[in-house]
Amino acid sequence: MQRKDYYAGNDKMYVATDCIVFGYSTDCLQLLIFPRKVEPHKGEWSLIGSFVKEDEHVRDAAERVLKEITGLDKVFFEQLKTYGDVDRDPGARCISVAQYALIRLGETDRKLVEGHGAYWYKLEDLPSLVLDHDELVRDALNELRRKARYQPIGFELLPEKFTLPQLINLYEVIYQKKLDPRNFRKKILSLKVLTKLDEKDKSTSKKGAYLYKFNREKYHQLLESGYHFEL
Amino acid sequence: MQRKDYYAGNDKMYVATDCIVFGYSTDCLQLLIFPRKVEPHKGEWSLIGSFVKEDEHVRDAAERVLKEITGLDKVFFEQLKTYGDVDRDPGARCISVAQYALIRLGETDRKLVEGHGAYWYKLEDLPSLVLDHDELVRDALNELRRKARYQPIGFELLPEKFTLPQLINLYEVIYQKKLDPRNFRKKILSLKVLTKLDEKDKSTSKKGAYLYKFNREKYHQLLESGYHFEL
DNA sequence: ACAAAAGTGTTGGCTGTACACCCATGC
DNA sequence: GCATGGGTGTACAGCCAACACTTTTGT
């Protein structure tokens, strides 16, 4: 189904969407990258991404890529910004709508990821990436830090059930500094968006730590009542 | 100069950039709109915008449009986000990179603006706009409010020299609520990013209000020293 | 019984907020 | 001299940051 083109005569260009995919596991943030499959720069490390198709929402293109590479269906992701430099891609004029995604590392089908030649790299020993992708990663990391401060997006990086020590560790990794566990607990619990479960996770200590769940409902109530966070 | 196209076979599309242009004058925020010049929906109210050219940075395209319509060269603007819905534009598949701009209303060459058939509308009596532009305006307004809280972008909307009562009024207009002038002064002056001048503006009172200038240098020092705002 | 991680409370300082009066000037 | 908007200070409350010990349990 071809619709009428009212804009003939103006320039068209390729539109890509690239995903900065963060994963978390104890003590470090990781990033999903893979060797680029097309020329130019074929084989060099790249973010995962794809061209957006004529009949495809930009967001859907990102979703498609994420599903393809991670096997996951409901990955959390948000638009970062659009990179529109004329020369950003030597392959052709191509703008890229960058998206950053947050993934619970445990759930990921590592086989599938590796089947696509993708790999998780610790942020601190990330190789340099193709095109302007290093810049996208820098920007995404800033955005993640900024955003984590006033929206509990950190939960997207943790499994459904998690312990407070895990949550603290996650925030320590994101902010790159030690947090005081007493103050952190007080603050996060005072928001009343966590539900304490009756189970303990004993994998990291003899005593065991209580598991919690993030309560999206209460979180949305809180937001709608005009509350302004600050972690 | 045509460069090699490595990506032939993938879809190309139109890329537009649309600007949400805010202006401020006492007691109200205004928005710059104009009657759309091309079919479809020719003649209906639209944000100002343009297609991005093959050899043009997306940001440059926005700059071009802003200059064309306002006559101003160094308008403050930032990317908002990209709208990528397949059906957002009935004229053809076209994604739009939205930018929001802030303008000192006094400086604008109103003749030039009107020569291009553009008009300033008060936000509260804005007509409904073409395509998804109502949504862009909503999003831009949210972003403006969010951003004004922790970055002094408000200054972009005021003339070079301004009084504190003016600044307070601006923030009242942005946040849509009354602020306490004592507390506002205390807070803003404690940031030490304003330079008090030896002149007074007597246009609004017999006593006259001292004029201030925004000190970009000190502001950047403050930022680099890792300070986190909150107005 | 001891090692290792989980969990818990108090205090002091700072920051935000609420609130009411005097000041300078043009008419 | 009075009306108009501009400018100033204080007191209270709530929040954040700093800080050290007890609890649980597997070995």
UniProtKB/TrEMBL annotation, chains A, B:
InterPro entries: NUDIX_hydrolase-like_dom_sf, NUDIX_hydrolase_dom, WH-like_DNA-bd_sf, WH_DNA-bd_sf, WHD_NrtR. Gene3D superfamilies: Nucleoside Triphosphate Pyrophosphohydrolase, Winged helix-like DNA-binding domain superfamily/Winged helix DNA-binding domain. Pfam families: NUDIX, WHD_NrtR. Residues 12-143 form the Nudix hydrolase domain. This is ADP-ribose pyrophosphatase YjhB (NUDIX family).
